[in-house]
Request: fold
Amino acid sequence: MKLSDLLTEDLMVLELEGANREEVMEELLNRLDATQALSDRETFKKDLYDREKHGSTGIGSGIAIPHGKSDGVKEPRVAFGRKKSGVNWDSLDGEPANLIFMIAVPKEKAGDDHLRILQALSRMLIDDDFRTNLLAADSKEEVTELIIAV
Amino acid sequence: MKLLAVTSCPNGIAHTYMAAQKLVKTAEESDMGIEVQVETQGSIGVENELTLEEIQSADGIILAVDKVVDMDRFHGKKVLQCSVADAIRKPEELFQRFVEGNVPVYETQKERHQDEGKKNTGQNVFYRSLMNGVSFMIPFVVIGGLLIALSLGIGGEPTAKGMVVPKDSIWNSIFLVGKASFTFMVPILAGYIAVSIADRPGLAPGIIGGYIAATGSFYGSEAGAGFIGGIIAGFLAGYIAKWIKSIRVPKMIQPIMPILVIPLITSVVVAILFIFVLGAPIASLMNGLTGFLESMQGTSKILLALILGAMIAFDMGGPVNKVAFLFGAAMIGEGQTFIMGALAVSICIPPLGMGLATLLAKRKYGESEQEAGKAALAMSLVGITEGAIPFAAGDPLRVIPSIMVGSMTGSMIAMLSGVTDHVPHGGPIVALVQAVGNVPMFFVAILVGSLVTAFMVNALKKPVVNE
Reply:
């Protein structure tokens, strides 16, 4: 399994429409729901917000990773949204988020392949070049190129 | 500067690993000369677990955690606690604090046993649990042992039933207090072994299980299962409680899990296991051993001496020890006092040998063990084999063979030189009350056996790593 199996092109939004966190969350939730990866959209949404309440997932440097390990998720998936103008995510550094990865993980799932992939993605996000390239990518194919290494 | 870090967040999916990556990367890129190694506790489990050697040699620890992690292993190190977010956002600041020396030294609340330093990860849980039980047990052994020693030494009288403290004497009360302390010994050992595995919910089941293990009447056995039974009970209680803890239950029941459900179910299960599964074999083991010893009569005296010595030292007051002792006591009635002579020597060798061992090689024993060693010396004088239990329970694989070999040596010397004893009790005190025949060889046998134990155990043990 590779990240490109979890983050397929139908889960990418290169120019998000939402103007705030709630709207962006809805947009990415819709994408995830459309792939049949969610068993219960509302449960997953609630878990996502519970996690945000715990502390914003806006980790700074323009990145937010709303995520949930939830009963509302059937299959692990990652949705990717980009908003060049940025959206307020109560980030740790106060800066708006440009790159948003919504990570959906089922509560019970055999094996940890998917967790290892998410671990690798998390580590990649610390890399400045990776972020710059993601911001500069012109197409979904290019994004896939970038994440295929993960 | 070498720093270690632990990262952990509630979900363990993303932040745990981001923080880890950020710390390593920042250290590589900075010119502070810092090297970082990170243990991640995420949804995959613990990865890159820090070893005790690494912790020992590190200059400091960063705990970037948003949930509770085990901190005991960082006792005495400089530990900087912060949130996962801090490690992602401002790793430079964290490093800077170490460079400036602006980090407090962390000290655990719990008393830590110094023996821990020498363990490698594989033995970790087993030994840490044993040592936790032993460290709580030691005061009970010391109090009980010294009070019993004192009351027997001053107020005791030799009788056909052994050393007895007359009922109307003040020493009898002191003797009973000492016995009370001994009663708690195995239950406390078992209880705190269980606590170290399952935390607080393990305490009651462990203590109850330990009591059952130590009380043979629960399963129709003449003697309890001793400290070895207590260790088994402790681990049983600990792992059963831990397993029940891991079951997911509805929110409504959660608050009563640690105080009611887990202790209750665990206690019942441990009790059932001990009474119906483990108890019967212990009783039949005693019967088997008794029959075996009786069949040994008239065969080789040397072989008998070796077997008796080994049995006395093996479980120190447990079923095997009891069988040998009762056999010797019965033989006095038949005029074969040489058997009790060999036993009286064997009985005091484990505590005397271990006490000598702590004096001969201080650096191989932690502080509390050195105290236990002094108490063991006093107990050996009045034949309380239990004085060596703290050592045996903490490091059974090295200590039990050493005390067995020592007791076998002493037993054989006594047997060969015709040492006799007509009071069913052991240790130098029986010589004092004129129950021993061939007193010089009685002491020679004790001394040689104890030295064998002391040298053997010190050769086997590694030095305690100073923290």
In short: The radius of gyration of chain A is 14 Å. Residues 21-34 of chain A form the longest helix (14 residues). Chain A has one domain: 3-147.
